[in-house]
Design a protein that fits this description.
2 copies of one chain form a homodimer. By secondary structure, the first copy, chain A, is of the alpha/beta class. Chain A has 16 helices and 30 strands. Chains A and B meet through strand 5, helix 6 and helix 7 of A and strand 5, helix 6 and helix 7 of B.
Chain lengths: ~575, ~575
């Protein structure tokens, strides 16, 4: 069955030119671009006045950060013109290990959106992370044979690379031996350290926040991923990279983008649009978002409108707004006039589904589980800074005789991180300042990177109730007040994702967010987002893990009590 | 053992800029580019005033056309700054099949020059070619596992691709399934035919002789190889490709270049030099000859001066003359001040060496073997056009009663092509005009593509003597007069290559050439080069094969006698 798209202008990413030609598609592939006519095809579409360009590719995304399953992500990404993503299922791997990665592969099989996978390189991220799984080279090895696995995901453990850690180097060398890529993640690394990191064969970075960082990386042979996510926005600083000679070594990525942003702003199309608005060439931006990403990842015959290429095509109104009308994925219409054409959700093998849906292994909690046995009165508190993931350490006098140390007036609330993968009973309990809640408690199963159960509360009873609700839901976010659940967002897939749509998730997320603010949380913070990073002991300076407080700068556990 | 190259300017092929930096090398690899100093290294070289650039890569070469074995080719290419070649051993495969390819792999193992191989796709080239081997997909398959085999060589059989010939398509699809490239060769193909050829997954072409041809191919996604060989010179016509947007999709190749040219003009450096002389950027030309070739062929960490890259580096005097002083191959000095540092010739397995060295299977010939039984007097003659490989058909009256039809006054000589691989006794004998020899005979084992024994003579006795001398030498070129050998060039390796040096080969070649002219051959022709193409039935219009005369335009055998 042959399809002719005629009379449109074609974005040629090989020549950075617009050309007038007809496109002939047979099955999944483009078989001709040029002077083809109606008699060559079974179906003919006249696209006069429109522009055809290759589908956009997100070169680095964590699907779990969207809280959407791959099929639901496809539903929200496809109308944005995204026809392929390269996903690092790092979050689910921390919860479910091998099964988590298999889940992501199965959940993305045969979608109109092409989903490629980079294997998570750092599970766990640090020795303080009590995860559901440990993934060494042995665990990763077998997965490389999957045709959609393109390499090893972001190597965040750059100290391990610099120190020639044998387990880290083994993961890298095994990827290379199989001809696979290794993604980078080394913010602010430069000079000799960067040389060593790159010489180890780590070929890109998405953590550049300044043009100098990017230029050094490109000059040393790395590809730079220009990231524009929900929290981390680097586009403005990196706009010069859309010019020569830089653009040839850069691709566009979102990394972490929330569903509300996907709905309101878009996806890769949003980055292109922003670059164009800033005066950059849409032809260059489209090339960076298509051919270059495909070629960088070694995806053959993807990312261009040319003979032999996979017919992943967008029909645009114009190059200024980059408004996507229609999307073809492998020659089939996937989006028509902005509306996704329904597709079948992939079946997940029952054993894998069961593992992912039952990721909590934790006994029911009682208020007593949140009780702190006093060893003194001078305590280390985590202090949140609005708008940042960095935290400060604050030494405060705590009166354990009143509410076991909680002091709502001084904004000293209780924080607990409870191991939830292996029912070890490990937990870290302490205090936090900066949330501002006056009553109730909040809890979540999203707490980077180990995704243990994290709870913040104004009293132990509500904390226990919130924690138990998360446990009962198999994961999610919840807001509790006076023993009652006042808002919740279930995330039953590994405690990270929902199987609802982006719009439903965004609505639930907003509801939960508003509920915390109703309990008095400071308007300056995003309570659940801030909370999700309170247990990540790679961002300074004081964090809480299941093993207790971690002094991030010194990379060691410290006591709650300052003696 | 660490080596520091300091104070040079570095050609950065990622940014098209010259930068001042020191280069630190550890073993085969570059480990740092930047502010390194003497204390970082065991050996320090001060290269003040010099330029360091990545080694040049020839993206398409037939080693056999240089008549040099791979080690001797290395000796002449390395001082030109060539550190890697991608060779298609098409000629030797026509003679020795699988063993011929294995020979080329073994003869190029562990050379300072990196030799990559594309498997010959068309052996034999046409149904009229009686070759020493037939290579179908089955014969090629096992060779892809060799780490230096990068794909399937130039698919000259484009009619086969356009007709979906199952054997052709099987070869292509097997290469693709293994993630390998398929090189193209489709001169003058355009429009729908080109679309189909490209859509079959043939990703480059080196036969572009006009800018329009090149632009169409680049626009449709192919890489264009800008070829500058001994006979085929496309650089001048394709000079605009050194500018944007074209340069990014072009690489530099020689295809076929004779040893005398390699000595006098150079190799890839000669193409760069010519482009620079024509006003093109040396930085662009160097990028096209290094990083782009490596990336196109999927060679990881080759083609740049950057951390992690293989230390294949050139030390240049300047960017105008592109004069190569020193060459490092994998961190080891291979050329010092223009002189090759001696290296060990690879050992060839005895069975393979025996096959290649004994490629003739043919009984001794007598003058009677060249006798033509007359069936009339009007004959089809091949007429040579000076300076071209095209031939004309000339119908002439032949008097078989005098010298069995040879008529030196009218420049009608005898031409014979004798099957020499399987001793079938097949031979084609006829007449040729345009050589101009007044006495003697010449013979060669170089006759494209089947490389049977080809002989041109003024009498049957000298033809037999010349043929028998080629047979006795196991291949080569020979000039005979009055029964005596007056000049010869042995090519004992498959009848195609010598194990002498480039200078020796060039001298022998010149001696043989002059000897034919002394016998009266026209000054306007290159007798051995013209002769080598007289049996190639893909170049119009009349050619001689072991099966007899071929009308190339109609692709069928025709009788010597016009009735």
């Amino acid at each position: 069955m042959k399809l002719l798209l005629k009379n449109a202008q074609i974005v040629n990413v090989f020549t950075d030119r617009l050309e007038t030609a007809n496109v002939l598609i047979d099955g999944e592939k483009i078989i001709g671009v040029g002077e083809y006519n109606d008699t060559d095809a079974d179906i003919v579409r006249d696209l006069s006045g429109k522009i055809i360009c290759p589908g956009f590719i997100d070169g680095h995304i964590h699907v779990e950060s969207t809280m959407l399953t791959p099929p639901e992500l496809a539903r929200v990404c496809l109308p944005c013109g995204t026809t392929a993503i390269v996903a690092d299922p790092h979050e689910i791997a921390n919860v479910c290990g091998f099964s988590g990665i298999v889940y992501m592969l199965e959940a993305s099989e045969d979608l109109p959106l092409s989903v490629y996978i980079m294997l998570p390189s750092c599970v766990p991220s640090t020795p303080f992370d009590e995860t559901g799984a440990v993934m060494e080279a042995e665990e990763l090895r077998v997965l490389y044979s999957h045709p959609r696995v393109l390499g090893l995901g972001e190597m965040m453990n750059y100290p391990g690379v610099l120190a020639d850690d044998p387990k880290v180097m083994q993961k890298i060398s095994e990827a290379h031996e199989l001809g696979k890529l290794v993604n980078g993640h080394a913010p602010l690394l430069g000079g000799r350290g960067l040389d060593k990191y790159i010489a180890a064969g780590i070929s890109d970075d998405h953590e550049c926040s300044t043009i100098d960082e990017a230029v050094e990386r490109i000059s040393k042979g790395q590809h730079v991923m220009i990231r524009q996510g929900t929290a981390a926005k680097n586009l403005e600083a990196l706009l010069p990279l859309f010019d020569e000679p830089w653009s040839r070594r850069c691709i566009l990525v979102t990394d972490d983008r929330h569903p509300a942003d996907l709905i309101s702003e878009g996806h890769i199309d949003n980055i292109i649009r922003s670059a164009v608005k800033a005066g950059k060439s849409p032809l260059t931006a489209i090339r960076m978002a298509s051919l270059q990403t495909a070629e960088y990842f070694g995806l053959k015959s993807v990312g261009a409108v040319a003979p032999g290429y996979r017919a992943d095509l967008l029909v645009l109104d114009d190059l200024e707004t980059v408004k996507v009308c229609d999307v073809y994925c492998g020659g089939r219409l996937a989006v028509s006039e902005g509306k996704v054409i329904d597709f079948k959700k992939p079946e997940i093998r029952s054993d894998i589904r069961k593992t992912v849906r039952n990721s909590f292994y934790l006994d029911e909690l009682s208020p007593a589980d949140f009780y702190i046995e006093s060893e003194g009165s001078r305590c280390r508190l985590i202090k949140i800074t609005p708008g940042q993931l960095l935290t400060d350490e604050w030494i405060a006098e705590i009166d354990f005789n009143r509410a076991n140390g909680i002091d709502i007036k001084r904004d000293i609330l209780k924080l607990a991180v409870i191991e939830r993968h292996l029912n070890t009973g490990h937990k870290g309990i302490g205090f936090i300042s900066g949330i501002g809640m006056k009553k109730g408690a909040i809890a979540s199963s999203v707490s980077h990177d180990a995704h243990n159960l994290i709870v913040i509360g104004t009293n132990d009873e509500d904390m226990a109730a919130a924690a138990n609700r998360i446990r009962a839901m198999g994961g999610g976010n919840v807001v509790v007040s006076e023993g009652k659940i006042i808002a919740e967002m279930p995330l039953p897939e590994a405690g990270l994702m929902s199987d609802l749509s982006a719009a439903e998730i965004a609505a639930q997320n907003e509801e939960v967010r508003m509920a915390v603010h109703k309990l008095g949380a400071s308007a300056e913070i995003e309570p659940f987002m801030n909370m999700a990073f309170l247990s990540l002991p790679v961002i300074p300076s004081l964090k809480m893990t299941t093993l207790g407080l971690v002094d991030v700068n010194r990379q060691r556990l410290v006591s709650l009590f300052e003696k």
